[in-house]
Amino acid sequence: MKNNRVVIIGAGLGGLQCGYILAKNGYDVTVLEQERVVGGCLQSFARRGTLFDTGFHYVGALGEGEALNRLFTYFDLMSLPWKKLDADCFDEIVIGDKSYPYAMGHNNFYNRLVEYFPHEREGLKNYIALLKRVGDHIFDNLKLKEGEKSLSNTYFAQSAYKFLTETIQDPILRQVLSGASLKMELKAKRGQ
């Protein structure tokens, strides 16, 4: 490695994760942050005596062999006092007067959603298969030699909107699947 010094601008979750990964792989990392505390959006703040915690409050898919288990193990977070949530509904997406459960585990996630969208069996299978492939290859970039391409780059470079519209025909199911994506809206105009 010719130059193993890296400067990361911003000590939010992404910057801290990148710094950790790079440091763990032999890089000399400096993280710069303009605010008084690190964490970006993962902060607590008080307004008029009320404490607001803006960090994430729950995590699904921490079971053995699931993608977040791999990530949390890598970041040495599995020793924290995690409490298992309802395996059949750790989160729910509400659209209008209907509620759709997010279940833990690929098969359980599929089975719960297919109850509401039986006409989307094939689309949901393809969606789950992509989630599994991404999870299986999440660390590929750390093992690459110069000039090699990672399978995960293929997935991360893909537009979420394009993938969902090509894979899932039901517009409500598209909203359900994108509804908990870090609480961001899927916008067709921006191609996200």
Describe the structure.
- The chain is an alpha+beta fold.
- The chain has a domain at 81-192.
- Helix content is 36%, strand content 15%.
- It has seven helices and six strands.
- It has helices at 13-24, 67-74, 106-116, 121-136, 151-156, 160-167, 171-178; strands at residues 5-9, 28-32, 44-47, 50-53, 91-95, 98-102.
- The strands form three sheets. A two-stranded parallel sheet has the order 1-2.
- The radius of gyration is 19 Å and the shape is globular.
- The protein starts with a strand and ends in a 14-residue tail after the last helix.
- The mean pLDDT is 84.
What's the quick description here?
This protein is of the alpha+beta class and 192 residues long.
The amount of helix comes to 25-40%
- What is the tally of helical segments? 7
How is the largest sheet built, in terms of strand order?
1-2
Largest sheet: 2 strands, parallel
Shape by Cα distribution: globular
Percent range for β-strand residues? 5-15%
Structural class: alpha+beta
What's the helix and strand layout?
Layout: E1 5-9, H1 13-24, E2 28-32, E3 44-47, E4 50-53, H2 67-74, E5 91-95, E6 98-102, H3 106-116, H4 121-136, H5 151-156, H6 160-167, H7 171-178
Parallel strand pairs: 1-2
Antiparallel strand pairs: 3-4, 5-6
Helix pairs in contact: 3-4
